[in-house]
Structure formats: C-alpha cells, structure tokens
Amino acid sequence: MSRLFTTIEIATPGRGFQEITTELQRAVTQSAAVAGLCHVFLRHTSASLLITENADPGVRRDLERFISRLAPDGDPSHVHTLEGPDDMPAHIRSVLTCSELTLPVREGRLALGTWQGAYLWEHRHRPHRRRLDVTIIAL
Fold first, then answer.
1. CA 98/CA 5 separation, integer angstroms
2. CB atoms near residue 31 (< 10 Å)
3. Helix (H) or strand (E) holding 19
C-alpha cells in the first residue's frame, strides 16, 4: 500500500462553486494509484466540499438559493459578525454541508458517476485562497 499527500490551493472569486475534479484527478495521476481512495479535507470553516451534478449549472444555482434561505446573510440574531453580514451564515453553511470527501479510485481515475463533479463551495462573498489536503491511498 502506498500513499501520496499533497496540498492544493484554490483561489475562489467569492461566493459560489469551483469545480475541483481536475485538480483531484491530477493528484490521483501523480500518485500512480490504479485502485484506492482519494481523501480530501478542506482546512477552512466558511467553505464546503461536495459532489453534485456537473452538467446543468441550474443545480448549483438551486443549491445556493436553497441554502440562502436556511442561512441568510445579515440575520439580526447572529452574534458572530466580526467579518461582515456573511460571516456567521458562512459558518452555518459549512456545518450543514461537509469539509471532507472520500472518493474511490478505479483504473487510475476518480470513480465518479457520469454527471458527478467534486466542488469547493465558497460561502463568503469576497475572494479567498482555500487549502485542500489531499491524501491518495493506493491499494
């Protein structure tokens, strides 16, 4: 069993989705893993990771609208507002979603479904540089 550990940095333009499938596949290819697991951990508390449809951007727009109703910016009940009206909602969004993914690797490729992609979901309005710790475990 072999392992590869790398850190990927993703620049986000602000709130929204950044597909990271290509970057993760690059790490899998670098590892030379034929079969195994790709584990991704996001080292931030105001963004998320997810797997969702990559064919129709309407899915991501609908996800953003849905979570905006659950965690609206500027909610007067929030105490934690040090960095602006999107500060606490960004933390709520990340708690409701996830900060890590584990993807299977088969035949040297991420074993995603036909319409699946891996995404970093930025919850803050301003741009950020997000760090992902990626571990590939080859079986």
1. 20
2. 22
3. strand 16-19
Q: Which of 132, 130, 139 is nearest to 27 (CA)?
A: 132
CA atoms within 13 A on the CB side of 25: 14
Tens digits of per-residue pLDDT, 39-97? 999 999 999 999 999 999 999 999 999 999 999 999 999 999 999 999 999 999 999 99
Q: Which of 119, 97, 126 is nearest to 10 (CA)?
A: 119
Backbone angles phi, psi at 16, to 5 degrees: 140, -170
Distances (CA, A) of 48 to 31, 73, 85: 25, 17, 18
Token pair 């931030």: residue? 44
Q: In the numeric block, which tokens belong to residue 94?
A: 């990340």
